[in-house]
Amino acid sequence: MSVKPSLGKGLGAMFPNLLNDLGNKPSFVMSGIEELFPNRFQPRKAFPEKEQRELVASIKKSGIIQPIIVRKADNGYEIIAGERRWRAAQQAGLNEVPVIIRGAEDQEVAELSLIENLQREDLNPIEEAEAYQTLIQKFGVLQEDLANRIGKDRSTVANTIRLLKLPEEVKKAVTTKAITGGHARALLPFDTPAEQLEALKIIIARNLSVRETERLVALARKDASRETKTTKKNQYITDMEKTLTDRLLAAVRIQQGQKSGTIAIRFSSPDELNRLFRRLADAGS
């Protein structure tokens, strides 16, 4: 039987070894559904119930049109691309599915699984970030090389990976679609997880847009910066008060306003007032 190659031109160009010589060998074979199992590098963790039901209904009606890409393993076949179709086929009650068997190393499997999902826009931002991190940490792929391979800017890859630094509650909100990846990226400038979690509550409660979230974060950071400067200034004034108190042997308090202020020196008797006067007068001469 002659059928067209199952993957798109983009994947074929990226992974020619997986798709070569299709004209010289059967395009697919039928395999028992129980012989297949997911690959360990599958970046996709969430399979939305509604989309899956629709795919199951389609398979019951028309069967699997696009074969599943697999590689041989000791106990059957490891899925390279097509886990969602395999899951749906099980739910549809199929006993066997069409597969294309290819040889592939672990890194190639990880990359292909990622790219297939990216092309189908099946990954949420957290799954995408975890897949990037796996390729970089496990296989030593450089960010720039990875970006070129998947057709994205290096900065986009870097910013996506940074999402993994967010608190678990924020990442869960992304995976459950309570907020978008844009909302999550807007929270990255915060210095602490507590600030990020507090902002998350506000985003959800007020149903803020990404742009509104960015403004919220900018204002919060501005206020925090102003508070930090005030704290530093107060500490400086406190040190000045202590120095003057030690030198004058009298309590000194400094009150500072926006542009001006006062220095107050406390005395408890006329004799102490005379002592302070002489000390200050002598210091000025």
Quote the distance from N terminus to C terminus: 109 Å
Based on CA inertia axes, which overall geometry fits? rod-shaped
The CATH architecture of the domain at 1-121 can be given as Alpha-Beta Complex
Order of secondary-structure elements: HHEEHEEHEHHHHHHHHEEH
Main β-sheet description: 5 strands, mixed
Per DSSP, what share of the residues sits in E-state strands of 2 or more residues? 5-15%
How would you describe what is shown here?
This protein is of the alpha/beta class and 285 residues long. Among the domains are: 121 residues, Conserved hypothetical protein from pyrococcus furiosus pfu- 392566-001, ParB domain (Alpha-Beta Complex); 42 residues. 57% of the residues lie in helices and 12% in strands. The strands form two sheets. The chain has a five-stranded mixed β-sheet with strand order 1-5-3-4-2. A two-stranded antiparallel sheet has the order 6-7. It is rod-shaped. The N terminus is likely disordered.
Task: Quickly list its features.
13 helices, 285 residues, two-stranded antiparallel ribbon, rod-shaped
Brief sketch in words of this structure:
With 285 residues, the chain is α/β, with parallel strands linked by helices. It has 13 helices and seven strands. Among the domains are: 1-121, Conserved hypothetical protein from pyrococcus furiosus pfu- 392566-001, ParB domain (Alpha-Beta Complex), CATH 3.90.1530; 124-165.
